[in-house]
Amino acid sequence: MKLFQELAIPDNVALPLTRAVENRQISHAYLFHGNDENLLDKAAQAFAKAIVCTAENRPCESCSACIKTNAGSHPDLIHLYPDGASIKITQIRQLKYSVSLKPFESAYKVYIIHQADTMQKWAQNSLLKTLEESNKYVIIILLAVNKGAFYPTILSRCQVYAFSDVGLKNELIDSVYRVFLAAYEEDYERVFESIAAFHDNDFSDILSCISSFVRDFLACRLSGESTSIYNQAYSGFIQRAAKRYSVEMLHDTISFICDIRTGASANVKLMLQAIFLRF
């Protein structure tokens, strides 16, 4: 856990972010939320440093990018703080212009928006347009105490990670496992019944948990080993199930889930059925 080794971050938050950096499968927008603003700041800084690092094992702490990030002088790592009590629409408009300019040194431009939950209606609407139209090299990390301050359209375009309450709780992970097990056994009546039990969970958390299993299937399918999987408690099932699924199907499923994340709205039940009917 080199990326967050000095921070008290649960594995089910740290591991997906670490793997995103390692595999260069970084999303265009993230929301880190929790009560400890200092932890959010440090986590975002560590994540951003790993993204712009030029070494194979990131962050290396010795390349020019890491040194500049630590010194607060990397030109492609931009921090945005509230102007007074809130993030103003003029600030988001300036950000929109900035993202149209290519990175100076890195393959990415990373924007960290601190206290992003202070954005009012017009600022959020402007940010939404930026998220919809941003270039592939742009990564935006929102930091917030109050996840509920954001419009659903903003949340739907972000990878959401909870740093206070773990977010992907053990019972949710176990529930998702049981649905995958039912699909593996081709008991689709049980699949549909189990999906109904998710109604009390955040849709983003459900998708993140499902994604973690799909990526575990893919890791086992590619390597034949279980050492790199995230859901170690279910490694036996994951190894058995992975043999059934093709690499192409698993890649397609990951893309399908990403498309759901970026959709403006979704029928949760239908979307979950569409995912699990692939297995």
What does this 3D model show about the protein?
With 279 residues, the protein is α/β, with parallel strands linked by helices. It folds into two domains: 11-162, P-loop containing nucleotide triphosphate hydrolases (Rossmann fold); 170-276, Up-down Bundle (Zinc Finger, Delta Prime, domain 3). It has helices spanning 11-22, 37-52, 64-71, 89-99, 121-133, 152-155, 170-184, 188-195, 203-223, 235-242, 247-262, 268-276; strands at residues 29-33, 77-80, 109-113, 138-144, 159-162. It has a five-stranded parallel sheet. Helix 2 (37-52) packs antiparallel against helix 3 (64-71) and helix 7 runs antiparallel to helix 8. The mean pLDDT is 85.
Explain briefly what this protein structure is.
The chain has about 280 residues and is of the alpha/beta class. It is built from 12 helices and 5 strands.
